[in-house]
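Our consortium's second objective concerns turning raw sequence data into structural hypotheses that experimental partners can test. To show how far this objective has progressed, the report includes one record in full. It was chosen at random from the queue rather than selected for favorable results. The single chain below, 199 residues long, was entered without modification.
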Amino acid sequence: MKSIITLTAILICSMNGMAQDFAKAMTNAKTAYSAGKLEDTHFALQQAMQEVDLIVGKEVLKLLPPKMDSLTNNAKDDNVTSNVGFVGCTIHRVYGKPGKQADLSIISNSPMVAMINSFLNSPLLGGMMSDGKTKTVKVQGYKARLEKQPGSTDDKNDYQLQMPLGNALITFKVDDCTDTQILDMANTIPFQQIAKLIQ
């Protein structure tokens, strides 16, 4: 717990504008709590947590490779969104151009993590859901579900990799590739470093 607080403090200090928003939300929470306004306190704390999610998301984007295979990152399409409710934030990056693209999304506190873990860790469920187009793979020691999808032509396929990483769900889609190519690209993503930030 102490390391999480320390990491959060470092991230907050590294981004002044957002740190001010976080500090303002925390001040509002303390003021509302002192006045006995619990609903306002809860709202202000949610605002503070959203700021932390945004900071963490932007730090994760810095860890991602600028290029995958021959596909270059479209920096203008990078996006971090703080979600309302139980879901934390969504981190999104696109490589390449429409038609030949790699799309990476990381959703913290995803409700889909439990379902994907069930498929990956239960032979019965994994077998029932197997239709010859999905298989369980390991990427950097993490179990993931790899699914073949129809591509742009009969001889080309799109692939989607879904990997639970703690309480986050990573979804990585690549157009017109082989299973080996998507796994090679996925191996360039620093999952261990990302896991440390988003936990």
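The partners drew two points from this record. The helical segments are 2-14, 16-34, 38-63, 113-121, 123-128, 179-186, 191-198. The chain has two domains: 2-59, 66-198. Both points have been shared with the crystallography group to help prioritize constructs.
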